Amino acid sequence: MKKPSIVFFDIDGTLYTEEMIIPLSAKKAIQALQDKGVYVAIATGRAPFMFETLRQELGIKTFVSFNGSYVVADGELIDKKPLEVEKVAQLHKEAGESEHPMVFLDHEQAAADVENHDHIVKGMGDLKMAYPPLDKDYYKNSEIYQALLFCGTEAEKRYQTSYDTFRFVRWHQLAVDVLPSGGSKAEGLRAVANHLGYTMEETAAFGDALNDMEMLKEAGIGIAMGNALEAVKQNADIVTAPVYEDGVKQGLERIGLL
C-alpha cells in the first residue's frame, strides 16, 4: 500500500463527534501529519462559513465544500458550481406548494424561506447552527451552491424524478441537500489533486455518510469510520474505529502515516 501524500477529512461523524467536538487524538494526528509534510484538506457538505473556525483551529487552507460545489486550494477558489437560478425558483415554488421549507446557502451565509419551522429548527440545531435569517428570495440575488430541502423520503423520490439538473442527497431524517447534478466530493477531490499536482493514487479520504461514498471509492485509499453507514463501509478500502474511539488516529496508523 502506497503512503498517501494528501489526506481529505469529512467533518460531521469523522472529525466531529455527535456533540461537534474534535477528539484530542484527531487534533494531534492531523498536526503530526502536517509536521511530516503530508498535505491535509477538508471535504464536507457544509458551507465554508460553517467551518471557518475549524479550519483556523487545524491550520487548513484547502477544502472541498458543498459536497464539491465550492472548492478552495491554499486559500484560492479553484472551482465552483452554483445551482441554476431558474431551476431553484421552480423547485422553490413546488416545495412551497407542498409545505416543504427550504434553506439557501452561498459561501458566506444561509437564508430560510420561512420563520421558525420545526424541521429547520431541528436540522440546523443538529448541526449546532443558529436558525438562518428569513429571506425567501435569497437565491435570486446570490450564487447558491446548495439548498436544504426539508421533506420525507417519498417526497424526495418525487423531486428526484422531476429535476435532472439537481442531485438530492439525504443528510438528515428531515432533509436532503440539493446539489448540481454530477457534483460530488469526488469531483472536488480530483480538482484539488490536479491543482496541487497530486495523482489520485496519492490521495486518501476519511468519511462516514452517503455523500462520502464516491469520494472513498475515487481516493487512492478510502477509509470509512467505524460509525459509518454500512453502505459506506462497503465502498471503502479500510474501516477504522468510530470517531469517538480515536478512529482518525487509528485509520492513519493503518495506512502507515502515523
TrEMBL record:
UniProt keyword annotation of GTP-binding present? no
Enumerate the InterPro entries for this protein: Cof, HAD-like_sf, HAD-SF_hydro_IIB, HAD_sf
Gene Ontology MF terms: magnesium ion binding; phosphatase activity
Bilayer-crossing residues are none
Q: Which PROSITE patterns match?
A: COF_1, COF_2
Give the Pfam families listed for this entry: Hydrolase_3
Instruction: Cite the entry's keywords alphabetically.
Output: Hydrolase
The yes or no answer to whether the keyword Hydrolase is present is yes
Example of a GO cellular component annotation carried by this entry: cytosol
Q: Report the superkingdom from the record.
A: Bacteria
PANTHER family tied to this protein = PHOSPHATASE YKRA-RELATED, PHOSPHOSERINE PHOSPHATASE
Q: What is this protein called?
A: Cof-type HAD-IIB family hydrolase
- Which species is this record about? Salibacterium salarium
